[in-house]
């Protein structure tokens, strides 16, 4: 179901032409972030209660699994516009699509997915017994992450609180108006997305330890 939703969202981007290369890829990363929040929230429902008590190896393997899942979803996010561009005989984008665009875009999408899945996992049923409350809370955090830049523009003082929210809107703002990806901005995006994913993974682990698994 999440992948079907992603395909619909991607089609909404590429159904008209021409579209900006950087703009479309960064918007796709937002969609992948949201889809991976969904997948992360679903994955924690399927975890084995016994395996969580083995060792930190479990946490590492589970995090790697979700990261790889995010990469697979990101591959869809990259292949979709390539196929659409081929179908439109190279007329989909406002400039020729380059290999570098696809590589940078794939990395940004993958790390956006990692950040999203890490956020989704805080809805773990053993952290919050009320599944409805956990899902609503996670949903609100995801929406806040997507709209954070706009929120801070209206109420800058909230930056003191919202710094911990996944920086997906910061990434889209970082590339706003850009025609090509640049190494310095991409490096910044990679670092903040990776740190965000690690923070929310740590939050989940600490929450489980506090609850005694």
How large a portion of the residues is in β-strands, by DSSP E?
Answer: under 5%
Helix share bin: over 70%
Q: Structural class given helices, strands, pairing?
A: mainly alpha
Mean of pLDDT = 86
What's the helix count?
8
Rg to the nearest angstrom?
A: 18 Å
Largest sheet, strands/sense/barrel: none
What is the ordering of alpha helices and beta strands?
HHHHHHHH
Give a written overview of the molecule.
With 213 residues, this protein is mainly alpha-helical. It has helices at 2-14, 21-43, 56-87, 99-120, 131-154, 159-162, 168-174, 183-210. Helix 2 runs antiparallel to helix 5 and helix 3 crosses helix 4. It starts with a helix and ends with a helix.
List the helices and strands and how they pair.
Layout: H1 2-14, H2 21-43, H3 56-87, H4 99-120, H5 131-154, H6 159-162, H7 168-174, H8 183-210
Helix pairs in contact: 1-2, 1-3, 2-3, 2-4, 2-5, 2-7, 3-4, 4-8, 5-7
Core attributes:
single chain; 213 residues; mainly alpha; 8 helices; 0% strand
In short:
The protein is mainly alpha-helical. It has helices at residues 2-14, 21-43, 56-87, 99-120, 131-154, 159-162, 168-174, 183-210.
């Amino acid at each position: 179901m999440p992948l079907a939703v992603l395909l619909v969202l991607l089609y909404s981007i590429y159904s008209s032409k021409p579209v900006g290369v950087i703009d479309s890829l960064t918007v796709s990363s937002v969609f992948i972030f949201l889809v991976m929040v969904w997948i992360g929230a679903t994955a924690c429902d399927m975890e084995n209660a016994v395996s969580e008590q083995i060792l930190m190896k479990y946490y590492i393997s589970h995090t790697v699994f979700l990261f790889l899942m995010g990469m697979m979803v990101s591959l869809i996010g990259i292949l979709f516009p390539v196929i659409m561009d081929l179908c439109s005989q190279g007329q989909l984008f406002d400039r020729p699509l380059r290999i570098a665009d696809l590589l940078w875009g794939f990395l940004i999408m993958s790390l956006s997915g990692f950040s999203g899945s890490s956020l989704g996992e805080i809805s773990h049923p053993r952290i919050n017994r009320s599944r409805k409350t956990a899902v609503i809370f996670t949903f609100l955090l995801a929406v806040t992450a997507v709209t954070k830049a706009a929120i801070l523009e209206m109420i800058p003082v909230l930056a003191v609180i919202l710094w911990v929210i996944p920086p997906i809107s910061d990434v889209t703002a970082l590339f706003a108006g850009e025609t090509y990806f640049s190494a310095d901005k991409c490096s910044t995006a990679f670092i903040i997305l990776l740190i965000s994913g690690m923070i929310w993974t740590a939050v989940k682990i600490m929450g489980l330890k506090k609850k005694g698994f």
